Amino acid sequence: xxxxxxxxxxxxxxxxxxxxxxxxxxxxxxxxxxxxxxxxxxxxxxxxxxxxxxxxxxxxxxxxxxxxxxxxxxxxxxxxxxxxxxxxxxxxxxxxxxxxxxxxxxxxxxxxxxxxxxxxxxxxxxxxxxxxxxxxxxxxxxxxxxxxxxxxxxxxxxxxxxxxxxxxxxxxxxxxxxxxxxxxxxxxxxxxxxxxxxxxxxxxx
Length: 205
Known about the structure:
Low-confidence stretches: 201-205
Mean pLDDT: 86
Largest sheet: none
Order of helices and strands: HHHHHHHH
Distance between the termini: 24 Å
């Protein structure tokens, strides 16, 4: 969990450095949406953190079916919150931006904030299922794929932002975010499929 949060924080700091050359107003708009992203991220992080002890307890008790049910329940919760986040952002993105930009925010700041926020709204589901899947891996003690997935997530975000944003525009900064989430999920899910516990495995343990 500490490594996961560290990669997220490091990525945010470096990506913000990429945004700086686009000007103070672009940075203001980006920073406003970052705060919104952090709020919604807490929901998915909390679900993922709740999954870990649930999985480990049921794995120790050799209740494999409950692990599957818990994982599916976490995915349903993630889907519900992702849909809620999408609706809130689509309908209130200007008002949300104004909470952080206020009257001093320029048209550019509001445009950057709105475009970034609405883009993220489409992809929060990837973050949710990534967090739930990572939570299961942690609960099972399968840490190497979990660490690799999060490092790949960070590498994709930084690579896309650092290479493409300065050349093709600030839009590539937020294009990098769901790309990293999706890659993280794919790696974690493949690892989970390979490591998924069975009743026979539990009895051996």
